[in-house]
Amino acid sequence: MAVRSTISLSFALMLPPLAAFAQDHGHGDGNAPYAGFETREIKSLSEQDIEELRRGGGWGLALPAELNGHPGPAHLLELQEELGLSADQVEAISATYNEMRTAAIQAGERFIAAEAALSDAFVGSELSEEALRKLLAEAAEARADLRFIHLSQHLSTPKLVSDSQIQRYNVLRGYSDDPCASVPEGHDPNMWRRHNGCDN
Question: If we measure between CA atoms, which residue out of 187, 140, 177 comes closest to residue 8?
Answer without folding.
Answer: 140
